[in-house]
Amino acid sequence: MRVISFVFPVLALGLASVFTVAGAGELPKQPASAEPVAVSSGGAPAAGEQRTFAGIEFCWVPAGTFMMGSPASEQDRQPNEVQHEVTITKGFWIGKYEVTQAQWEAAMGNNPAKFVNAASPVEQVSHDDCQRFVETLNQRGEGTFRLPTEAEWEYACRAGTKSAYSFGDDKSVFDQYARARHEVVKKPEPETKDAKQPQVAAEEAEEEEDKERGTLPVGSLKQNPWGLHDMHGNVAEWCSDWFGEYPAGPATDPEGAESGHLRITRGGHWDYSPAFIRSAYRNYNLPDRSYGNLGLRLVRVAD
Fold first, then answer.
1. 3-class DSSP string for 77-119
2. Which residue of 78, 152, 208, 226 has the smallest Cβ count within 10 Å?
3. Which strands, in side-by-side order, build the sheet including 236-242?
4. Cα dihedral across residues 154, 156, 157, 159: positive or negative
5. Other CB atoms within 10 A of residue 22 CB
6. pLDDT digits (tens, 9 = 90+) for 52-111
7. 240 near 253, Cβ under 8 Å?
8. What are 200-229's pLDDT values in tens digits?
């Protein structure tokens, strides 16, 4: 009997955003989105400027201040999304795409993914696995890599936007930017001819449904204003923080709770509804757990 575990949405625990920006393996090439990405002519990188480190494409995220969390008026907001001002004092490079299976296998020598495709995001990796991946890359001498903090992740996801999603609030364009489901639909039970068939038929139906959903190759959908793909859906992404409640006031370079037993995940995934892939939506999981909807995106520390 096949048992599959998934990350489920956190429904309640107790974005609009205004930004002040300072400075202003092999992956498939993607069509340009509606939002152009700036490229600097010299000096500090421009927001969204691209570089490749250790065979992974990154985009520049400049330092700045934004409103993290969601306003009380945002549809589907959760109580733990308390809106507060956050300042990111140092710019950083963040993965243009989620880490792919090809990139993971090149570094780690294995591919743990459920939805096998070299160009798709690696999944079924725990937070602990991700730390080992980071350690392996850091031994190459091509810079310092790490997981993003939760604040860095949301800042990069929003990319200066004030809406619930980085592509706005117009759900008619949802499928152009986000790999998720519009609504949860339970398929009817398959018809069977004897007592032994129902379980087998149900498992086959589940596998077929997963194939229809599941992950997409990274970058299959449009990018956000800073050039980042799949910030909404596809796979949820581990962050470095322990889960904790947000501070009541402004924060500078927050790194989450000092300790805990749950690590933050962000972005939602292919099996979530739109409510759970909003820019402000928070989730978490045990650091040793791995699922077919949970992957990562890297930060490279600026030189």
1. CCCCCECEEEEECCCEEEECCCCEHHHHHHHHCCCCCCCCCCC
2. 208
3. 282-285, 263-266, 236-242, 294-295
4. positive
5. 14
6. 999 999 999 999 999 999 999 999 999 999 999 999 999 999 999 999 999 999 999 999
7. no
8. 444 555 555 555 689 999 999 999 999 999
